[in-house]
């Protein structure tokens, strides 16, 4: 036993494994929250506009200086918004506008027709 004199007593070793585990869990949860946030926002940005939304945009951007494009775009895009209220007035206006569609050189739209088109567009908003 005389040879074992250099053995020292028990020393307390600090244990940080609980803190390391908790910090790893906190980092993982934080990363998951960030990923969920970015994926949700990314999905919102990629939503394609519906045909009705595209038609409404085209109706708002009608250029009344070019008669032929005005008539065509109005007749094309207004069809998405036809309901019981405006069906008859749209059909009547469409018949009036037929003369502007198929000719090479045409007159400008009358102020009355422009106003009717503008009013019909305002009604669907």
Structure description:
The chain is mostly helical. It has five helices and no strands.
List the helices and strands and how they pair.
Elements: H1 17-45, H2 51-60, H3 67-78, H4 87-101, H5 111-124
Helix pairs in contact: 2-3, 3-4
Question: Quick gist of this model?
Answer:
The protein has helices at 17-45, 51-60, 67-78, 87-101, 111-124. The chain has 125 residues and is an all-alpha fold.
Morphology call: rod-shaped
Secondary structure category: mainly alpha
The portion of residues forming beta strands comes to: under 5%
The overall strand count is: 0
Mean pLDDT: 86
Uncertain spans: none
User: Helicity range of the residues?
Assistant: 55-70%
Can you write the helix and strand succession as a string? HHHHH
Largest sheet: none
Radius of gyration: 36 Å
Discrete helix count: 5
The oligomeric status of these chains comes to single chain
| N- and C-termini, Cα separation | 100 Å
Features:
125 residues; mainly alpha; 0% strand
